[in-house]
Design brief:
15 strands, binds iron/sulfur cluster, 42% helix, five-stranded mixed β-sheet, 2 domains, alpha/beta, Sulfite Reductase Hemoprotein, domain 1, 351 residues
Length: 351
C-alpha cells in the first residue's frame, strides 16, 4: 500500500481524523432533523453498523435547536450540515455539535463569517469545507470540474486561514470519478488538512457502490483520504457497509470477517455459490476480524486456506475444512456449512 499523505490531526468530539489515524467511516442521516426521535433512532442503527461520525442536515432554526437533544442521545460525533445561513451555524455550535460542514464563501458578509469562526474556535469545533461539483460558483461554469472544485476549495480555505482558523477538513465531490481524483490531488499538494473523500450522487446501491469503490479506492491507493463517506440513493446503513468493505479491500482497516471465495468454474463439483452466500449472510453481523476462504477445488483452495483463519476447499460432492491451513475434517457437501460455522464460532470465541 502507498504511504499515506501526511495530514494534520483534527479532533472531532474525541474522534481524531488525519495525522495517520485510522480512516474514519461516516454517513449522513436521511431523516428530518427536526424529528429528534426518528433521527436518533437512525443514528443508533448506524452506530451499530459501524458509523463513526454522523452528519445531519440543518435546514432551519427548529432543526438547529433539535441538535442539542440529538447530541445528548448519541455516542458518536455529530456534524451539522449548513448552507448559506450563518445563524444556523451559530445555533448548531450552541447546541454542542462537534463539527460544521459549511463553506464560508457561501454565508455572505465577513462579519457573519467572523462570528461563526470565533464561536467555532472557542468551542474547538472544526469546519469541513465541502465543495460539490454540482454547485460550483458561476465563475467556474464551463471550466474543468476537478480543477474548479480545487480552486473553489482553496478560496474557502483562504477565508478561514485569513481569520487564523486552521481547524479545517476538506472535501471535493463530483459525480465524475476522474474529476474528483484530480481535485484531491491538487489540494493534497497544497495543504495538509485532512481529506474527507467521497463520490457524490453516484447512483443507487449497486452502481453507486461500484462507482464509489472505484473513486474512493483510487484516491486511497494514492495515499490520500482520512475519512470516507459512500453516498448512495439508498439506506445510510448500506453506505456504512460499502465504506467498511472499501477500507477492508484496501487493507487499511479490518472490520469483521473477510470472505475470499472463488468465482467457480467447470472444476467446481459442489454448490459453492450457495455455500458462500450462506456463510456470507451468517457472518455479516460478526465483529471479529478474520479471513474465511470458500474455494471450489484444490487448484487454489489449499493456497487460500493457508492464509485464512478458516476455510473450505470443495471436492466431488464433498469438501475439506481447514483451520489455519490445516485440514481438520473432510465431509460430505451437506455437512460443510454447519462445520465451517462451528469453526468460525470457535475462532470468534478464542479471539
Ligand atoms: S478454485 Fe478451483 S473451482 Fe474455484 S475457480 Fe479456481 S479452479 Fe475453479
Amino acid at each position: 500500500m502507498t504511504d499515506r499523505t501526511a495530514t494534520k490531526p483534527i479532533n472531532i468530539g474525541g474522534l481524531i481524523i488525519g495525522g495517520g489515524n485510522p480512516i474514519a467511516v461516516q454517513s449522513m442521516t436521511n431523516t428530518d432533523t427536526r424529528d429528534v426521535a426518528g433521527t436518533v433512532r437512525q443514528i443508533k442503527e448506524l452506530e451499530e453498523a459501524g458509523c463513526e461520525l454522523i452528519r445531519v442536515a440543518v435546514l432551519d432554526m427548529e432543526a438547529a435547536q433539535a441538535l442539542r437533544d440529538i447530541r445528548r442521545q448519541i455516542n458518536i460525533p455529530l456534524a451539522a450540515d449548513i448552507h448559506f445561513d450563518y445563524r444556523l451555524a451559530l445555533a448548531a455550535l450552541d447546541a454542542g455539535v462537534n463539527k460544521l460542514r459549511l463553506n464560508p464563501g457561501n454565508i455572505g458578509e465577513k462579519d457573519r463569517i467572523m462570528q461563526v469562526v470565533k464561536k467555532a474556535k472557542e468551542r474547538g469545533v472544526p469546519i469541513r469545507i465541502g465543495v460539490n461539483g454540482g454547485s460550483l460558483e458561476k465563475r467556474f461554469h464551463g471550466k474543468p470540474v476537478g480543477e474548479s472544485m480545487a480552486m473553489s476549495a482553496l478560496d474557502h480555505i483562504k477565508i478561514l486561514e485569513d481569520l487564523d482558523f486552521g481547524n479545517i477538513l476538506v472535501s471535493m465531490k463530483s459525480s465524475s470519478v476522474p474529476e474528483t481524483i484530480r481535485a484531491y490531488r491538487i489540494i493534497a499538494e497544497s495543504r495538509d488538512y485532512p481529506l474527507h473523500v467521497g463520490i457524490t450522487e453516484p447512483g443507487g446501491v449497486f452502481s453507486g457502490g461500484i462507482k464509489s469503490a472505484a473513486g474512493i479506492g483510487a484516491i486511497l491507493a494514492m495515499g490520500m483520504g482520512d475519512t470516507i463517506r459512500v453516498s448512495l440513493t439508498g439506506s445510510p446503513a448500506d453506505e456504512i457497509r460499502y465504506c467498511k468493505e472499501i477500507l477492508k479491500a484496501m487493507e487499511l482497516r479490518r472490520f469483521g470477517p473477510e470472505i475470499v471465495s472463488c468465482p467457480t468454474c467447470g472444476r467446481t463439483a459442489i454448490d459453492l455459490i450457495g455455500l458462500a452466500a450462506r456463510v456470507e449472510d451468517a457472518v455479516k453481523d460478526k465483529k471479529t476480524p478474520m479471513k474465511i476462504s470458500i474455494m471450489g477445488c484444490s487448484v487454489n483452495g489449499p493456497g487460500e486456506a493457508a492464509s485464512a483463519d478458516v476455510g473450505i476447499t470443495g471436492g466431488k460432492g464433498r469438501g475439506a475444512v481447514y483451520r489455519k491451513g490445516i485440514v481438520v475434517a473432510t465431509l460430505p457437501e451437506e455437512e460443510l456449512f454447519d462445520r465451517i460455522m462451528r469453526e468460525i464460532d470457535l475462532y470468534v470465541s478464542e479471539h
